[in-house]
Predict the structure.
Amino acid sequence: MRRVVVTGLGLVTPLGADVETAWANILASKSGAGPITRFDASDQKCQIACEVKPADHEYGFDPNKRVDHKVQRQVDPFIVYGIDAAGQALEDAGLTDMSEEDKLMTGCSIGSGIGGLPGIESESLVLAEKGPSRVSPHFVHGRLINLISGQVSIKYGLKGPNHAVVTACSTGAHSIGDAARMIKDGDADIMLAGGAESTVCPIGIAGFAQARALNSSFNDRPEQASRPYDKDRDGFVMGEGAGVLVLEEYEHAKARGAKIYCEVIGYGLSGDAFHVTAPEPTGDGAYRSMQMALKKAGMTPADIDYINAHGTSTMADTIELGAVRRLFGDAIGGVSMSSTKSAIGHLLGGAGAVESIFCILALRDQIVPPTLNLDNPDEGCEGVDLVPHVAKKREVRAVLNNSFGFGGTNASLVMRKID
Amino acid sequence: MSDTADRVKKIVVEHLGVEADKVTEEASFIDDLGADSLDIVELVMAFEEEFGVEIPDDAAEKISTVSDAIKYIEENKG
């Protein structure tokens, strides 16, 4: 059986535009939240977000490093973030100079939950104000979700499967799981897999606020707004950025002497079949997703040391926790579970990929990241180590990452250390 | 160099992300400046906006170099 390992990582986040900076800030319990700077949000119910910081910031993002000027002008920010994170991952994996043979067997599976919402919004205004003849010829392909995979394949000459998942906030996790299967099935030896999002724009904030999904009572204290499992949580904080992993067939990675972070050993998927935005109240969909991932991994709950929860800082947090409790039974006492959304907000389609990378770094460094702002755990949190406030050194042999999305779509990934 | 030429070159530099010294009057958008057909559509739109001229599709198709653009604009601007 073909096994799949991770050999490269790339991150663009509100707490850093490279893997080591973002991880160091996560472990230092920093928050990426602040007042919205992209537009005047004074008429919005929610006026805060976790934005990717500008290039001159201490841990800002410089798009000029890896994305052509012309491409930057033509595409939405989620594509720029995705191209940069993919480039980082290839560099990390030592794959920037591949043979033609390898390129034929290297593909992309980098998705997004929503895609180019800021550009759809602004170009709609151009259409309304100036008419159809002023709409940009780059409008469509600069907003399409699969254009991270498209742009990355063109930039690096990657001729294998070119794919893009769209499953709302579980996009990043599904992207990794689907890409791992493509490698297992022999469609590719190497896959760039992940997700990206950037919807900090008036209609993005207003839309999620109207769906009652965003926080609204922390505008004066942005760093305290994302507080998964806390009694005072009142909605997620929008984040933005990208996470991309290099997945590689194990023997291929070994043969070229690649640095191997971990093995992607289990992947589970399920549907709630319940409601468009609310999770099924018993957490059954989440339960079945995690259960399938563990079964595929040939593991039991006692083998899992860390769970990076979906934990968005909404009412759904305790539903997920209930599902974990049901699945883990007595093993619940041995696992640490935290939500890094408390630090970087909710990256929507990017979340599952970025959080999988944090899981992988937890495996690498034997430390689990904290859940910030967990001052008063809600009912139902008793007896579970939610890693409040500060990171925690501990043994981490295997990790589980959960991502759930609108439409009732669930994905879980299990990754483990490899000897 | 005329004012029109300066403004055309500035737009080309901005839109195509090329070095200013490469944008000579003889330069072909596609062969020398790395543009594709969609970039030319976008450039033509930018010229229309900047100079208040209308460049119909059949005229736009004949614009392949920087000097073609300058010449068309000089002849047709109000």
User: Anything to note?
Assistant: Chain A is about 30% helix and 20% strand. The first helix of chain A runs from residue 19 to 27. Chain A has two domains: 4-256, 267-417.
